[in-house]
Amino acid sequence: MTKTLFSPAPGTQSPLALFAGGKSVTREPGDLFTWPIITEEDEEATLEVLRAGNMSGTDVTRKFEGEFAEWMGVPYALGFNNGTASLLAAMFGLGIGVGDEIICPATTYWASALPVYSLGGTVVFADIDPMTLCLDPNDIERHISSRTKAIIVVHYLGHPADMDAIMAIAEKHGLKVIEDVSHALGGLYKGRKLGSIGHVAASSMMTGKSLAIGEGGMLTTHDQEVHDRALAFGHYERYTEEIPTASLKRFAGIPLGGFKNRMHQLSSAVGRVQLRHYDRRCAEIRKAMNHFWDLLEGVPGLRAHRVDESTGSNMAGWYGNHGLYRAEELGGVSVTRFCEAVRAEGVSDCQPGCNKPLHSHPIFNEVDIYGHGRPTRLANSVRDLRQPQGSLPVAEGIGRQVYFIPWFKHYRPEAISEYASAFRKVSEHAAELKVADSGDEENLGGWNFFHPTT
Question: Which run of H or E residues covers position 69?
Answer without folding.
Answer: helix 59-72
